[in-house]
Amino acid sequence: MSAEIAIVLGSGLGSLADALSVEREVSFAEAGLPSSKVAGHAGRFLLGKCFGQEMWIMQGRVHLYEGHPAHDVAAGVRWLAGQGVKRLILTNAAGSLRAGFSPGEWMMLSDHINLTGTSPLEGGANFIDMSQVYSAPWRARMRDCAKKLMMPLHEGVYAGLRGPQYETPAEIRMLQVMGADAVGMSTVLEALQARALGMEVMGFSCLTNWGAGLSAAGLNHSEVLHTGQSAAAQMMRLLQVSVADE
Ligand code: HPA
Asked: I need a surface site. Which of 91, 113, 142, 203 has the fewest CB within 10 A?
């Protein structure tokens, strides 16, 4: 049993694994990964059939803000590559920076800005081309699938920060000026690692809230989890249609 495709599930999106008929389960500890202690991040790899296609699901991930170095944050991607995975879908929860990209909706990553100040490739592969981190042909297929479903699917630039705190309103304004459409605390390091390993990469942000200062409401993690849980069903439908199309 093996699979060429894997999905990494972000905060509140763990229920996407419910559609998988699980054949094998490997805990982060068994795979030699540090365990995440953040609520909403289970910490295991599941292999199984989802909508008729064999795939790996990585439920939970390791974050810089838990004190793990960049190399460890990307360890799951290297482990999946070791299992033969060639195509990787990264999902995350993110704050929206752009009017019209509303909480509860999804944004496909067209590119990212790595503001973590680090890279999983430090000390390893140098000068890897990052001119197209997120596969343009794969995005085009996803765009078509979303259209069929009449599902709003935005496309934009994800800014990856270290966290663990949410941003200040001034930082949100800075990110907007930089050209970011969404902000979060994951994904960029995994995407860099995956490209360095030659994988085809796709990224989806579940927009769980407005960036700080863009709405009257403050931010909290339980709201992020709650919005992620209700938006997960939409992503499930998109994946189902896209798998059927391949
Ligand atoms: N900022 C950073 N990370 C996030 C946010 C946010 O607003 N929402 C979900 N993850």
From this structure: 113
